[in-house]
Amino acid sequence: MGLHAARRFAELRPDASVILVDAGRIGNNASGRCMGFAIDLAHNPRERDFVEDVKGNREELLVNLEGNAYLRSAVEELGVECDWDPQGKYHSAATDHGVADLLRFSQALDRIGQRYRWVEREEIQALTGSRHYIRALHHPGTILLQPAKYLKNATRVLPKNVTVHENTPIIAVQFGKPRHVCETPTGTLRASKVIICAAGYLTKFGFFGNSAIPVYTFASMTRPLSEAEIPRLGDRAAYGLIPANSFGTTVRRTRDNRLFLRNVYAYARDFKTTRRDILQARKQQQIAFDRRWPGLSSIGFEASWGGLLTLAQNGGMVFGQLADDVYGAAFCNGTGVSRGTAFGKAVAELACGLSSPVTELLKNRRKPSKTYPEIVTSLGVRFVTARRFKQAGEEV
Ligand SMILES: Cc1cc2nc3c(=O)[nH]c(=O)nc-3n(C[C@H](O)[C@H](O)[C@H](O)COP(=O)(O)OP(=O)(O)OC[C@H]3O[C@@H](n4cnc5c(N)ncnc54)[C@H](O)[C@@H]3O)c2cc1C
User: How far is the CA of 373 from the centre of ligand 1 (A)?
Assistant: First the structure.
């Protein structure tokens, strides 16, 4: 989000001096650690509203398509290399209840006039080399990319009027006129306008306190597979599989022939996860690997990690003007690649006094509500995620 806000603001105000600060390294955040599905249409077939809320889904599509178009312009016009692959996504089922979820999802797609294709057992098994899958639904609008590569390379081609400071946390801010004053461990920034795109950390800047539900999800990746191993991954050089059940396992085969698996959600007190949580999740990813590629899974994983998703109890999101000359966008509620790009672009347009169908739509979105006290929220998240994970069964 922040990268795209900086890019857009600098494009619109070529005479302005834009400073992009990140507490860590760009790419070493949720955006860079994610699975790289730039999703045009959200994929939660279990959500009742997904079937019923036709207007909401059309609006979601409009926002995400704007995000994908901006990503595409970075690739096509600025030459950002990121393993761009507009092949769409496979919603894949391994169980009868998974197939039932896909049927509901297809009804939702019918209602909003979306194209899709059923992929039967033989085809999905040939494509993935895995007997685990029994049916899938191919939806064409999603783009697969290598997110950290995208972020690193997109940072290099930001407009000339952007200066980037990594490893520069903002540790205190005084909002005011004529300049906002932002303190970092090694200096002070004075800015006439501030745009905050810091996911759940936005709440630490004094806005929407007690509204972020910090949840981590986790992933593991294998080493690149050898020439002898590659044929076991099926006949498609790269792919992305979204589980029919949203608590199931998401899978990517990457361009460099690695398998990349994501599952498990965990409450993250004060936005932090622990090594123990990562190792616990890795065990679940190993189980998922064993189920899908039993002949290969003894190779294990080269790396495992977690990343922050910021949720709101009511599904609300932050977008808009937060104070005089202070703007913000945050809370992706799970799928933030396309949506986050669109939010970042749109919040910069808003900060420049412009309006577009997307800025208007986002301004009117539901804002995040307050959460219950932390003890209640953390227990609630733990309980619900454990139950839904169990119900997902072999989809994990
Ligand atoms: C394993 C995993 C897989 C996922 N897969 C997908 C997927 O395939 N598709 C999808 O759409 N979504 C996916 N997601 C979700 C997606 O990654 C997030 O929704 C999205 O990246 C959020 O983007 P963001 O820019 O809002 O937040 P972030 O990427 O978290 O960026 C927030 C930034 O704010 C900075 N920051 C915070 N506080 C400060 C401060 N005080 N000073 C300076 N900087 C600060 C942080 O350093 C960070 O870089 C996945 C997430 C994970 C963890």
Answer: 24
